[in-house]
Amino acid sequence: ELKVEQNPLFLSMQEGKNYTIYCNYSTTSDRLYWYRQDPGKSLESLFVLLSNGAVKQEGRLMASLDTKARLSTLHITAAVHDLSATYFCAVDTRDTDKLIFGTGTRLQVFP
Amino acid sequence: DVKVTQSSRYLVKRTGEKVFLECVQDMDHENMFWYRQDPGLGLRLIYFSYDVKMKEKGDIPEGYSVSREKKERFSLILESASTNQTSMYLCATGVAFFPYEQYFGPGTRLTVT
């Protein structure tokens, strides 16, 4: 059974600081997705990582994928308040179009 | 842009009532999904559908059923609502080819009293 674990579950960080969210998964997969959810809103796609070594960047967020370690990271550089949200990683099950989601990391950025 | 709409943003129902949640997409995607989201548990897949009149159980199908009579519409049915079905329900749609990305609707927050 594919399991996806994120840590930390909650992250409170000061503006301007850097931090990394980790996403570990338990079985082989080549596709990993990062989503953002603002309070009371739905999920918005951030990144789609499709191969080992893939790296994608958008503004202050950078995501990477290491399929051998079964690990993806979402790195936050010089955090700003607008990044406050919950971030989910999701892994596909390879044989189907289903995604298995992590529990989410709630990020709170304060001045 | 993919547009996924859900029939209600907020819904309050009584225990034992039959509840219909509807999802409509306008991008001709083959795949449609229903998830529920609960604090600390992330998103869990209830049912999904690859095509009209086709449905597959997800990880937590008990207490739910679905209907897909048209490609653009996917309904989630709670035959007899219970308080443990109080949750946020998210519909998603996606293409049936690489990279299989999913697009989410705004969600329905259902409270069963």
Topology, pairings included?
The complex is a heterodimer of chains A (111) and B (113).
Chain A: E1 4-7, E2 10-14, E3 19-25, E4 32-37, E5 43-49, E6 55-58, E7 61-66, E8 71-76, E9 85-92, E10 99-101, E11 105-110
Parallel strand pairs in A: 2-11
Antiparallel strand pairs in A: 1-3, 3-8, 4-5, 4-9, 6-7, 7-8, 9-10, 9-11
Chain B: E1 4-6, E2 10-13, E3 19-25, E4 31-38, E5 42-49, E6 56-57, E7 65-70, E8 73-78, E9 87-94, E10 102-104, E11 108-112
Parallel strand pairs in B: 2-11
Antiparallel strand pairs in B: 1-3, 3-8, 4-5, 4-9, 5-6, 7-8, 9-10, 9-11
Structural class of chain A: mainly beta
Low-confidence stretches of chain B: none
What is the CATH fold-level name of chain A? Immunoglobulin-like
Q: Main β-sheet of chain A, in a few words? A: 6 strands, mixed
| H/E element order of chain A | EEEEEEEEEEE
Helical amount of chain B: under 10%
Pick out the low-confidence regions of chain A. none
Largest sheet of chain B: 7 strands, mixed
Task: Label this structure with key terms.
A: 111 residues, mainly beta, Immunoglobulin-like, six-stranded mixed beta sheet, five-stranded antiparallel beta sheet, 11 strands, B: 113 residues, seven-stranded mixed beta sheet, four-stranded antiparallel beta sheet, 0% helix, globular
Task: Please provide a written account of the structure.
The complex is a heterodimer of chains A (111) and B (113). With 111 residues, chain A is mainly β. Chain A has a single domain (4-110), classed as Sandwich (Immunoglobulin-like). Chain A has strands at 4-7, 10-14, 19-25, 32-37, 43-49, 55-58, 61-66, 71-76, 85-92, 99-101, 105-110. In chain A, the strands form two sheets. In chain A, strands 2, 4, 5, 9, 10 and 11 form a six-stranded mixed β-sheet that branches. Chain A is globular and about 45 Å long. By secondary structure, chain B is mainly beta. Chain B has a single domain (4-96, 106-112), classed as Immunoglobulins (Immunoglobulin-like, Sandwich). Chain B has strands at 4-6, 10-13, 19-25, 31-38, 42-49, 56-57, 65-70, 73-78, 87-94, 102-104, 108-112. In chain B, the strands form two sheets. In chain B, strands 2, 4, 5, 6, 9, 10 and 11 form a seven-stranded mixed β-sheet that branches. A four-stranded antiparallel β-sheet of chain B has the order 1-3-8-7, with no helix packed on it. In chain B, a hairpin with a 7-residue loop joins strand 9 (87-94) and strand 10. Chain B is globular. The model of chain B has no long low-confidence stretch (mean pLDDT 93). Chains A and B meet through strand 5, strand 9 and strand 10 of A and strand 4, strand 5, strand 9 and strand 10 of B.
